[in-house]
């Protein structure tokens, strides 16, 4: 009996110690707390503030209307222009089947101008002023320049052929109202009234008009 008690007294401390160890292990194992990494939201998952920028278009220099280009004015070369002169036909002299009349070119402007060469001459007809037949034939050589002060006059002689000398079937006689005149090196024309008859055909055997170079009056 004493021996039993002695064994029990030795076992009790061991059992108690084991129970304490079991209690500690049970307490530590069952109450494990989650890791901080699993309980704390990741920074990548947290919403971030997004700034939305609205683009505003500012007018660029290209949207500004460009100034219209400057049109270069033709240089004043001193030549007589259509608007600088008044034209008239002088009295003529009759020849063999022709009449010669001077085309008088008077500087009606307020400044001097020069003229040199052959005027362009042709018959015109109708309300629209359409040309009748060929241009006047240029007879002779180009003369010297003629300077015209305001009010001064130069002359170019024109030959008017009697178109009745041509075969009517070839000539195609047509009533004309006058002459269209281009001064030398000029692109604008003047009109000189002179009613008569011209050949509408450009295939007549000869010239119905001929003009000589400009010379002083």
Can you put this structure into words, describing what you see?
- The chain has 217 residues and is of the alpha+beta class.
- The chain has a domain at 85-216: Immunoglobulin-like (Sandwich).
- It is 17% helix and 32% strand.
- The protein has 3 helices and 13 strands; from the N terminus they run ααβββββββββαββββ.
- The protein has helices at residues 2-30, 36-39, 168-171, and strands spanning 85-89, 93-94, 98-107, 113-115, 120-125, 130-132, 137-138, 146-148, 153-161, 173-182, 189-199, 209-211, 215-216.
- Strands 1, 2, 3, 7, 9, 12 and 13 form a 7-stranded mixed beta sheet that branches.
- A hairpin with a 6-residue loop joins strand 10 and strand 11 (189-199).
- The radius of gyration is 58 Å and the shape is globular.
- Residues 11-59 have low confidence and may be disordered.
- It comes from Amycolatopsis eburnea.
- This is DUF4232 domain-containing protein.
- Pfam families: DUF4232.
- InterPro entries: DUF4232.
- Residues 33-75 have a biased composition (Low complexity).
Provide a brief overview of the structure.
The protein is of the alpha+beta class and 217 residues long. The protein has a domain at 85-216: Immunoglobulin-like (Sandwich), CATH 2.60.40.
């Amino acid at each position: 009996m004493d021996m039993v008690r002695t064994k029990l007294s030795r076992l009790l401390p061991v059992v108690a110690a084991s129970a304490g160890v079991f209690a500690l292990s049970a307490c530590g194992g069952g109450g494990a707390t989650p890791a901080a990494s699993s309980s704390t939201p990741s920074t990548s998952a947290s919403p971030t503030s997004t700034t939305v920028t609205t683009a505003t278009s500012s007018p660029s220099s290209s949207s500004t209307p460009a100034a219209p280009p400057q049109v270069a004015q033709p240089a004043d070369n001193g030549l007589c222009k259509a608007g600088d002169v008044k034209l008239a036909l002088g009295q003529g002299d009759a020849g063999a089947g022709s009449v010669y009349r001077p085309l008088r070119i008077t500087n009606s402007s307020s400044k001097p101008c020069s003229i040199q060469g052959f005027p362009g001459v042709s018959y015109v007809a109708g309300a629209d002023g359409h040309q009748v037949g060929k241009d006047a034939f240029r007879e002779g050589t180009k003369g010297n320049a003629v300077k015209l002060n305001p009010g001064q006059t130069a002359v170019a002689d024109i030959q008017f052929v009697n178109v009745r000398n041509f075969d009517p079937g070839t000539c195609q006689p047509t009533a004309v109202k006058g002459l269209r005149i281009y001064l030398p090196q000029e692109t604008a024309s003047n009109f000189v009234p002179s009613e008569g008859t011209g050949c509408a055909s450009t295939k007549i055997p000869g010239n119905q008009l001929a003009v000589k170079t400009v010379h002083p009056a």
